[in-house]
Design brief:
Distance between the termini: 22 Å
Shape: elongated
Helix content: 25-40%
Radius of gyration: 22 Å
Strand order of the largest sheet: 3-2-4-5
Strand content: 25-35%
Number of helices: 9
CATH architecture of the largest domain: 3-Layer(aba) Sandwich
Structural class: alpha/beta
CATH topology of the largest domain: Rossmann fold
Number of domains: 2
Largest sheet: 4 strands, parallel
């Protein structure tokens, strides 16, 4: 789940200032669940834009705006409006904004800020669980991501700031992830595995495109 939050009205209004004829595109997946880019939020945005003196030519919620193929298919339904638009305001993650721009060939603007990849605890509450590092170590760390769950993002631990199993950086409310990794390995009789040194995060593995072989 890609977690997004709405940009302030002031920021959106400033970005739209040079443009009058606007198309609004929402997201039918992640942003709908986050309540930042679904049908209701798109409707609210249209009303705001009209209040700001903008001419909203069309609005729609695309099933998966991060998929250029789906964007091209769905945008054909409002092809004339897209051609006449000065800009498309996209209510999705940053990937969706870029994909809509590629599919439409138009100026695109983001209505949301992309925060992180998250786990849904319940509607309206999301927990960060992945930072898309491109070097997943979950198999070595008992399914717990140290890059996200360690305040320092350490690939090995615990550090000197661990106090009684808690993170001394964040405070008493946060468990030290490396203590949790140790406890899980110990319960499985794998204490020796904990002594294995993980290499530092290789940030060069994140490239512009990935090819997946099915």
């Amino acid at each position: 789940m890609i977690i997004t939050v709405a940009k302030s009205d002031e920021e959106v209004k400033r970005a739209l200032e040079p443009y009058r004829n606007i198309v609004v595109v929402g997201c039918g997946t992640c942003a709908t669940i986050c309540r930042t880019g679904g049908e209701d939020q798109v409707k609210e945005m249209v009303e705001k834009l009209m209040g700001w003196g903008k001419n909203v030519l069309a609005s729609m919620v695309v099933e998966s705006p991060c998929d250029v193929r789906i964007d091209r298919r769905d945008l054909r339904r409002i092809e004339d409006e897209v051609k006449r638009a000065d800009a498309i305001l996209v209510m999705s993650c940053g990937v969706g904004v870029q994909a809509v721009g590629e599919a439409s060939g138009k100026k695109v603007l983001a209505a949301l800020d992309t925060i992180f990849l998250g786990e849904v605890e319940h509607i309206g509450r999301f927990l960060e669980r992945c930072r898309e590092c491109g070097m997943c170590v979950l198999n070595e760390t008992e399914g717990l991501c140290p890059i996200v769950l360690c305040a320092k993002g350490l690939m090995n631990g615990p550090c000197e700031d661990m106090i009684n199993g808690k993170c001394g950086v964040v405070g008493d409310e946060a468990d030290c992830v490396w203590v949790k990794v140790w406890e899980r390995m110990k319960s499985e009789g794998r204490e020796e595995d904990f002594l294995r040194v993980n290499p530092p995060l290789d940030r060069s593995v994140k490239v512009g495109a990935a090819k997946v072989v099915w």
